[in-house]
Design brief:
The complex is a heterodimer of chains A (107) and B (167).
Chain A (H helix, E strand, L loop, with lengths): L1 E4 H5 L15 H15 L3 E4 L8 H13 L5 H7 E4 L6 H13 L4
Parallel strand pairs in A: 1-2, 2-3
Helix pairs in contact in A: 2-3, 3-5
Chain B lengths: L1 H73 L6 H32 L4 H16 L12 H22 L1
Helix pairs in contact in B: 1-2, 1-4, 2-3, 3-4
Classes of the chains: A mainly alpha (107), B mainly alpha (167).
Chain lengths: 107, 167
């Protein structure tokens, strides 16, 4: 199992959706960290509460993008991916991530 | 002579009262404790209700400020440098305000309304989705006036839930 800390392994202040939006965008996180980790490991755990906060655009692109790009289906991600957060005020980000994964349609 | 008899009767009554005072206290103490305990409980209830009301008022004013910032942000064209800079400031303000709202709502539900935790979490999720999805933080963020209505509706849902708790 691989554990990814967004704050430690990517950025404490992730911003934006696309690569063109900045160096810490959702697309960059998905392509450089999340997708390779999911390919190489059976289970990947993403710790979300060590970053300062997220825009929904970042979360949608990083996690929902996995389904839109046809890397994985929502059912596969439910088995492979776990979203960890210990701070109760970060719980809504976890709800948002699963909402984006479940609502995403393969492009 | 009469005055002397009266004084003596009065003295006897007084003395009888003080002699029986411990027994009197013994008999009324359960009622006294009940009244005192009850009044403390009632006072605590009203203080707690007043604190809850002021926390709800504060949450409401946070929602108002999110609404104002979101209105300005999603109607800002971001074509020139000043507008882009203003857009960047609003992005940080909106994200920060949602984080603060989340922290305060978490405290509110844990302190006053554990039964509403799931419902309020879902409503907060809707607010965050409405305010910061789409082209939020995108370099080519377009004006998206339609999004404002989605934001207003999501904010109103959470506001009416909170007002329901207050009343």
């Amino acid at each position: 199992m691989k554990k990814i800390y967004i704050g430690k392994n990517f950025s404490e202040t992730p911003v934006g959706r696309y690569l063109s939006d900045g160096p810490y965008s959702g697309e960059k996180f998905r392509e450089e960290i999340l997708h390779p980790a999911l390919k190489e490991n059976d289970i990947v755990s993403v710790v979300i509460d060590d970053a300062e906060g997220y825009g929904s655009s970042f979360l949608d692109e990083a996690f929902g993008g996995l389904v839109r790009k046809k890397y994985f289906t929502a059912a596969e991600l439910e088995k492979k991916l776990s979203i960890e957060c210990t701070k109760p005020d970060y719980l809504f980000y976890r709800v948002l991530i699963w909402k984006y994964i479940k609502e995403a349609q393969p492009a | 002579m009469n005055a002397c008899i009266f004084q003596s009767d009065s003295f006897d009554l007084c003395s009888a009262f003080w002699d029986n005072f411990p027994s009197f206290l013994y008999h009324i103490s359960p009622a006294l404790v009940t009244v005192l305990g009850g009044s403390i409980l009632v006072q605590r209830f009203f203080i707690s209700h007043a604190n809850e009301s002021s926390l709800i008022d504060d949450l409401n004013s946070q929602l108002n400020s999110i609404l104002e910032d979101a209105l300005e942000y999603w109607n800002l064209p971001c074509a020139n440098g000043d507008e882009k800079q203003r857009g960047k400031i609003l992005e940080q303000r909106i994200k920060g305000a949602i984080r603060r709202l989340s922290a305060d709502l978490t405290y509110y539900t844990s302190r006053y309304s554990r039964g509403k935790q799931k419902c309020l979490l879902q409503l907060l999720t809707n607010v965050s989705d409405a305010c910061t999805n789409g082209e939020f933080e995108s370099k080519k963020k377009p004006v998206d006036s339609g999004r404002y209505l989605i934001i207003v509706n999501s904010v109103n849902s959470i506001r009416s839930e909170l007002l329901h708790q207050k009343l």
